[in-house]
Amino acid sequence: MTRGKSGRRPRSFARLVRSNRMLKACRTTLRAASRDEDNKQELSGLDVDAVNMDAVKTRWLNQCGCTDHVLKSSDALLAIGDTVYLIEFKAGSQKNVKAHDVREKAISSLLVLSDLTGWTCKQMRSHVEYMYVHPSRTRIGNRVRGKAKGDDGGNEEKGIAEFLRLAEGSLFRRGHMLSGTDFDKFVNQALL
User: What is the pTM of this model?
Assistant: First the structure.
């Protein structure tokens, strides 16, 4: 396990994440991380400090001498209390939603975090939660339950929900599938 400058073990994984130089260098806000540049849509209205995981991934790969196309990453990382949240925002077209992409982003983000912190996946899993944030609460519910009319895109979202359920306890403590509005409520509640 990684030790701080004093030689003592950091108190928590979240604290270790907050103190990591590369993660600190890639600061952003949830609002900025949730923004889809193509359609100018933001899934979060919160100006809460977060980490831009795409920037972290790029820096980490450059440090390893790899191209940026080797790994995918989640959009953001947020540390609240003793919990670290990896967040994937899916604004814009839902036609491009692929369950295997979300799975790859989660696993790649955990790999990068493990390398940066020195913690194994086994050590991290009880401190990390994964969040998939989608534009509309109604659409999530209807599509995951298979009730969307004339839209077979719900199968991919069912796959995402299934991945989040199956990965709980093995990759991360808990998986969440939330609308942007519910995400902001969740974060505000967690910050209290």
Answer: 0.84
